[in-house]
Specification:
By secondary structure, the chain is mainly beta. Helix content is 10%, strand content 56%.
Amino acid sequence: MKLRFTTALLAALAALALPAAASASEGYAGTTINGRSVEYEATVGAGEHIAFFVTLHNHRITKVTEFGASVLAQCALGTDRIGAGLDSTIKVSKSGTFSASGTSPSSLPETALQVTISGHFEDKGRKVAGTMSASGSYNGQTSCTTGTISFTAK
């Protein structure tokens, strides 16, 4: 009986000594581009897409380097497909979360979209889930808004 108790106690102590599970952004083991970056793409509606690239450092996702979306928005004159994105680099926390907002770059006239994106990496970075939204003027149309769009990408 004492031997079983001692064995169980040692097993419990050994379990406590093991390192905690890796965060969602650590230990990425999926397919990479040049061993340093990963592309994610999500289809969020009929013909609507969200895509972005992330950078890896020591197999850990450290930043989102490009983000873009082609989604439908409700504007003052009706529904329009808009292109929105962010040029800035978005830092990814050690727990795998990220968020950013800013003005979408555009070469279109009379375009000023405010874009917000947030999300988190899951399954050691093989999957990302989050939300994005955009609002403002787009190609001369005013009062455009996408509302909040949820996405999951691999």
